[in-house]
Design brief:
This protein is mostly helical and 135 residues long. It has four helices and no strands.
Length: 135
């Protein structure tokens, strides 16, 4: 048993002696790891952000086909409406021209109506009719 203990002690001592030259390299590696340890909270935060991005990507993967289907339906409706809108635009031009013609015709008629109204107001029986009519 003493031999076993001595053998183990010798091996441990040999390992320690062999490990001593590695101590400066270990210390240098620990110094390099210090900034990384300080950045660990940021890495943890980034992991949360990446998990959220993964959730959003999964949501988009589920929703994009439906949105694409809806956009295709809207496109089909717009294609169907395009000729009607073009026809309406043409009709709008015709309506504008009709309005101009009516305005040109109504201008003189309005003046004539005003003159007729003044003439009717001068008629002798006009006052009696106004009094006989209620309201």
């Amino acid at each position: 048993m003493l031999r076993t203990v001595l053998s183990m002690t010798t091996r441990v001592a040999g390992g320690l002696v062999a490990g001593v030259p590695a101590l400066p390299r270990i210390a240098e590696a620990l110094e390099r790891l210090t900034p990384l340890a300080e950045a660990l909270p940021q890495v943890t935060e980034l992991r949360g952000t990446l998990e959220r991005l993964e959730q959003l990507a999964a949501f988009l993967a589920n929703e994009l086909p439906e949105a694409l289907h809806q956009m295709e339906a809207v496109h089909a409706q717009l294609v169907e409406l395009a000729p009607k809108i073009t026809a309406l635009a043409g009709n709008t031009g015709e309506l504008d021209e009709s309005i101009r013609v009516l305005a040109a015709a109504l201008g003189p008629l309005q003046g004539t109506t005003e003159r007729l109204g003044r003439l009717v107001d001068r008629l002798p029986d006009r006052r009696r009719r106004n009094q006989a009519l209620p309201g």
